[in-house]
Structures are given as structure tokens and as C-alpha cells.
Design goal:
The protein is mostly helical. It has one domain. Helices cover about 70% and strands about 0% of the residues. It has four helices and no strands. Helix 2 runs parallel beside helix 4. The chain is globular, with a radius of gyration of 15 Å. The two termini are about 25 Å apart.
């Protein structure tokens, strides 16, 4: 199960690369790809799906606003600073939305 700490570890390293203006280096690109893969895996995990199907996005329980557009933006700019910032924002939103969803589900069971 992917945890918030998994994102934080990668962000700490990527933030240091960003600070040193090394996001576009081979190491930076590799780390950004890994972070993007982690983000996609987390989205699939929390929605109990194996891959993202944008034609059925409305049927998923946890989807941030403008997810498709933001995903496309990130995909096009994965190795750029603004793409990384959008990934961090999206990860934070997904973590919060998942926590809220789990809380609502727990209250429904009571």
C-alpha cells in the first residue's frame, strides 16, 4: 500500500534537485518519472483499478477537479519544474481526498 511517506521521500530528493537546478539532469528525469509512476499507481490503488480509463473517470470514487486536464499537463511537462509542482499538488489532493473518502465510508458502516 502506498503511503504519504512514499511521496514525501521522493519530494525531499526532488526538491533538493530542484533547488540545485538539476531537475532536467538524467538523475532528475529518472526521479521525476518515478514520482509520476508513483502518483499514477496511487490513483489506481485508491480507486481499486488496474489502469486509468479516462472514458470511465466519472465512475471512480476519488477524482480531483480537472483531473484529466491536469494529468495531460503533467504528462506533457513531466521533466519540467511546473510539471513537478502540479504532480506535488495532485498528490496532496489525492491523499486528502482518499482520507475523506475512507472517513465517509467508515461512517456509512456504523
Amino acid at each position: 500500500m502506498i503511503a504519504k511517506s512514499d511521496f514525501e521521500k521522493r519530494e525531499e530528493y526532488l526538491d533538493q534537485l530542484s533547488k540545485n537546478k538539476k531537475l532536467t539532469s538524467q538523475e532528475g528525469k529518472s526521479q521525476l518519472d518515478a514520482y509520476f509512476n508513483l502518483l499514477q499507481s496511487y490513483f489506481c490503488e485508491i480507486n481499486n483499478i488496474s489502469n486509468i480509463d479516462f472514458d470511465n473517470i466519472d465512475s471512480y470514487p476519488i477524482v480531483p477537479i480537472n483531473f484529466k486536464e491536469r494529468f495531460e499537463y503533467i504528462n506533457e511537462r513531466c521533466h519540467h519544474f511546473m510539471g513537478y509542482r502540479q504532480m506535488k499538488t495532485l498528490a496532496s489532493e489525492l491523499i486528502k481526498m482518499n482520507a475523506a473518502y475512507k472517513t465517509r465510508q467508515a461512517h456509512k458502516k456504523q
